[in-house]
Amino acid sequence: MDHAVDRRLASLRVIMCLTFDRRAAPQEIAAAKAAIIACQSVLHSVELSGTFDFMFEAEVADMATYNAQLSLCAEPMARLVSRYEANFVCKRFIRRDKPDRAVWVPHNGGMKRIDCKALDKVSAEGDYMRVHSASKSWMIHSTMAAVSDRLGCDDFIQLHRSLIVRRGFIDELIHGGRNWTAVLSDGTEERIAKSNVPAILHMLRNGSTSDGPTLST
């Protein structure tokens, strides 16, 4: 397979698995591997241990091109390869990486990455957000909606429109009259918006009871 493939026209992927003849000279096998790796139609190649010794994925325009290139390799393959198996790719599954759950804050004239797991709370101050982590805080130019999207919804709770807190940062929920108040680990108390109370209680009651806040009346 020694012809370059136009990536815009190619529509066929083939994965070839090879077992080299144990009687073949090691230098000839090494040369064959090097030629396969250098071929412009080969996308990936790996050495194996097991049923096969070598595997590569190639890209060709169509079946006719594949057969033509395979015929060119027939003679050297017959001398060096005791077994080969071709598999054609019909469907490819690509994993999507999870979004980066972190915020970038000003630090020493530059920027510093703070992992969302290390955040305690985020409070709105005008057109800025104050990010709190381990008794430190930073101001960033953002919106509550943008920060909420970055944090994700699993570990953080929005108490009211100006404050988001990490679930584990809530020590106690106090119910007095018609109001609910959250007591945070830093000693501060925050009133919970009435519209948010049902969702917050449901989230906390259905979470871990070992590290969740205490509910008080």
TrEMBL record:
SMART domains: LytTR. It comes from the Bacteria. Residues 103-206 form the HTH LytTR-type domain. It holds the Pfam family LytTR. This is LytTR family transcriptional regulator. It comes from Sphingomonas telluris.
